[in-house]
């Protein structure tokens, strides 16, 4: 597995952790001032993980053909 695949995995794990943490903070205290930046971080990590994963799969598929 090359570096792009590892980056996609790490970003995906970061997305999952930040998503669980933001959901926890929303349930505990909706007026917490960390919720908005954490949700923004969650969305950024989601898009980075998705983009890296798609590029990794495209490169893997192109090399296989």
What does this structure look like?
Helix content is 86%, strand content 0%. The chain is mainly α. The protein is rod-shaped and about 50 Å long.
Question: What's this model, at a glance?
Answer:
The protein is mostly helical and 65 residues long. The mean pLDDT is 86.
Number of beta-strand segments? 0
Helix percent reads over 70%
Oligomer: single chain
Q: Give the helix tally.
A: 2
List segments where confidence is low: pLDDT < 50 over at least 5 consecutive residues: none
Question: What are the SSEs and their pairings?
Answer:
Elements: H1 3-28, H2 35-64
Describe this protein with a few key phrases.
65 residues, mainly alpha
